[in-house]
Design brief:
Strand 5, helix 4 and strand 6 form a beta-alpha-beta unit. This protein has 14 helices and 18 strands. The model has no long low-confidence stretch (mean pLDDT 95). With 425 residues, it is α/β, with parallel strands linked by helices. It folds into 3 domains: 151 residues, NAD(P)-binding Rossmann-like Domain (Rossmann fold), CATH 3.40.50; 162 residues, Dihydrodipicolinate Reductase, domain 2; 85 residues, Alpha-Beta Plaits (2-Layer Sandwich). Strands 7, 8, 9, 10, 11, 12, 13, 14, 15, 16, 17 and 18 form a 12-stranded mixed β-sheet that branches. The protein has a 6-stranded parallel β-sheet with strand order 3-2-1-4-5-6, with helices on both faces.
Length: 425
């Protein structure tokens, strides 16, 4: 007796959608019966694509009675939220790669799914082809995870790696990345840290088993990182990466953020280069574990999407309550620490007058702001008698560091504050 085919509806046939369609062709028990696209007339690099199943009305997908699973691959909040909501209300299970939707309205969409006894899987929304969500939900479920540090955006990691290797400026490398297709024409979502912030919001929620609100995630991009900072970091034994991090302290407060960071050259994340992504988890009893691999692209992301489809497909018609371990049940809202109250080490680059007393002035300002210095280096005295000074602080409060920066900007000895980057601790 021939087994029933699982019917799939795709919303989106871009890079990821095309990879999903091509990958699913290998599975005889899976059939894509409807695909919604923005432009029906666009030429697509998909051999043997059945044009009759393509529509430019996504509601034809979410309302189609024969579809079992809807894959939403268009991104953004609107119209994705309403499409997924409608699909759930029409009895469909959901697979999505939509990190922004999950970060901003995930709580609502999961509540709707639970109300209708449907499953939402989203492995592709965090780290592309790297399996991280299902491992946290299943094999790592017995762990108390207290720290996550990750490189979650391939575009920014590519740019920072090229700046490091070539000694080139951010502007020059960004232009090159855009020409190669690694960066969008409007790269804001990547280079200002939004993409990584969406991802760490959901990842921290999973890791800590408490809801993290996106508005409580601190975000800072890479646009102010200079070639000079990359060289100084190397000289000091560090690499600069855009790190998405989340920590839970002993009092139960979460510190969730995205920003550039100096990380030691001997650490695992320091060697994650170009478009590769990685996620490091720390907890008990596992200790420390890092997963790395392709964080984006047609087939790496399709791998995660198809894995989610097959997980749902394997349980259809076998139980009244699919995949209980994969469902979202985080009732408690995490208490989050404001960035101004956090403790950090800092790398500070100053341009100062090459006068007597400058180093002492820097030390005095830091002392007045309750900041101790680990190291201070002066070099590159220029023809106009100015010098570049690099400072690494000891652990201190963010609010104190910001007060020191303001004092430096007002100091007669300091020409400019060039960079302020936090250092991994």
């Amino acid at each position: 007796m021939e087994s029933k085919k699982i019917k799939i509806g795709l919303i989106g046939l871009g890079t990821v959608g095309s990879g999903v369609y091509k990958t699913l062709e290998a599975f005889e028990n899976i059939e894509v019966v409807k695909i919604a696209v923005k432009n029906k007339n666009k030429k697509r690099n998909i051999p043997n694509l059945d044009e009759t199943i393509i529509t430019d009305d996504a509601y034809e997908v979410v309302s189609n009675p024969e579809i079992d699973i809807v894959c939403e691959l268009i991104g953004g909040v609107d119209p994705a939220f309403d499409l997924i909501k409608t699909a759930i209300e029409n009895g469909k299970h959901i697979v999505t790669a939509n990190k922004e939707l999950l970060a901003k309205r995930g709580e609502e969409i999961f509540n709707i799914a639970e109300k209708h006894n449907k499953v939402i899987l989203y492995e592709a929304a965090i780290a592309g082809g790297i399996p991280i969500i299902m491992p946290i939900k299943t094999i790592l479920a017995g762990n108390n995870i207290t720290r996550v540090e990750a490189i979650l955006n391939g575009t920014t990691n590519y740019i920072l790696t090229k700046m490091d290797v070539q000694g080139a400026s951010y502007e020059d490398v960004l232009k090159e990345a855009q020409e190669l297709g690694y960066a969008e024409t409007d790269p804001t979502g990547d280079v200002e840290g939004f993409d990584a912030a969406y991802k760490i919001t959901t990842l921290a929620t999973l890791a800590f088993k408490k809801k993290i609100r996106f508005e409580n995630v601190y975000r800072e991009g890479i646009t102010k990182v200079r070639a000079e900072d990359m060289k100084a970091a190397n000289d000091l034994g560090y690499k600069i990466k855009l790190i998405a991090s989340a920590k839970m302290d002993e009092k139960g407060y979460a510190d969730v953020r995205v920003h550039p960071m100096l990380i030691p050259q001997d650490s695992t994340l320091a060697h994650i280069d170009y478009v590769t992504n990685a996620v490091s988890l720390t907890g008990h009893p596992i200790g420390h574990i890092t997963l790395s691999g392709p964080g984006a692209g047609e087939f790496p992301t399709a791998s995660s999407v198809v894995g989610d489809i097959l997980a749902i497909a394997a349980e259809l018609d076998t139980t009244d309550y699919l995949l209980p371990m994969m469902r979202c049940r985080h009732e408690e809202l995490a208490k989050c620490i404001d960035i101004s109250d956090t403790q950090n080490k800092y790398y500070l680059s100053l341009n100062a007058k090459n006068n007597k007393g400058v180093i002492g002035n820097i030390g005095n300002i830091c002392a007045e702001c309750n900041i101790s210095l680990e190291s201070i280096v002066q070099k590159n005295v220029s023809e106009n008698n100015t010098a570049d000074i690099t400072v690494i602080t000891e652990l201190c409060k963010e609010c104190n560091m910001q007060s020191a920066v303001k004092a430096f900007e007002d100091s007669e000895f300091i020409n400019s504050v060039n960079s302020l980057i936090r250092v991994q601790i």
